[in-house]
Amino acid sequence: MSAPTLTRAPGGRPRDPDVDTRTLAAAVRLIARTGVHGWSTDDLATEAGVGKASIYRRWRTKDDVVLATVRHLGTRPSSYPAGGSIADCLVQLVCDEIGGTHGLASTVLIAALAHDPQLRSAWQEGPARRLRAEATGILVTSPWLATRLDTILTGLTDVISALRIRHCTTGTLPSVVVVRQSVRSLVDTHNPRPGGRA
Questions:
Q1: Does the pLDDT value for residue 8 go beyond 80?
Q2: Residues 187, 86: contact at Cβ < 8 Å?
Q3: Above 60 in pLDDT, residue 74?
Q4: Which domain holds residue 169?
Q5: How many Å apart are CA 20 and CA 24, to the nearest integer?
Q6: Per the structure, how many domains does the chain have?
């Protein structure tokens, strides 16, 4: 593995890109644990293992960190199985979207979208765009489902929203079985073959 490349800040010494990565990952964890406003820059520096000055060199305010974190959530790689069925790929996509620290942070952030236009815009440009692109990439492998793309994407967003609400109200993540049933119902509704499987 090669050493990370360092970028030079205007008029300063080289910046270590690992600090950005660690800081944004720490912000995701803090948002998941304490909400958007439940942490300070001091908490972030401690969680990331970086100096507070390193954070302020990159982002002027905590709000800037939150916006960068939302954009960061939009760049995380997908983990759906290559060569899997459409339903299996969608199930994995939904599980990734609602599960783990990223899923919990996303749920917390969604609650804040209504009150913050900048956050809403960052969400649309980042995580919402990534989800739509990944789901589209899965769905276009079926010519029949591809003709109903907008309807299925809306349905998929509704499934994810319902599962997020279930998570928030029960305090537990829906099981893979529940996710699979929800996705299977959505896909089967749009499948041209009665009782067929996508």
A1: no
A2: yes
A3: yes
A4: 86-189
A5: 6
A6: 2
Same domain, 104 and 168: yes
Of the two residues 12 and 172, the one the predictor is more confident about is 172
Decide which of 193 and 144 is more confident: 144
The dihedral through the CA atoms of 42, 71, 114, 29 has a sign that is: negative
> For the domain that residue 59 is a member of, what is the CATH number?
1.10.10.60
In a domain, 4, yes or no: no
Is the same domain home to 19 and 60? yes
In whole angstroms, what is the distance from residue 104 CA to residue 170 CA?
A: 13
What is the crossing angle of helices 149-170 and 86-98, to 10°?
40
pLDDT, position 71: 92
| Cross-strand partners of 117 | none
Neighbours of 46 (CB within 10 A): 14
| Residue 31, token pair as written in the block | 């948002």
Same domain as 127, residue 59: no
Residue that is written with structure tokens 């820059």 in the block: 41
Q: What pLDDT was estimated at residue 198?
A: 47
Structural domain contains residue 132 = yes
- At residue 17, φ and ψ (nearest 5 deg) are -65, -20
Q: Are residues 165 and 123 in contact, defined by beta-carbon separation less than 8 angstroms? A: no
Q: And the tokens for 71?
A: 């954009």
Residues 122 and 42 in one domain: no
Is residue 194 assigned to a domain?
A: no
**In this structure, what are the phi and psi dihedrals at residue 15, rounded to the nearest 5 degrees?**
-100, 140
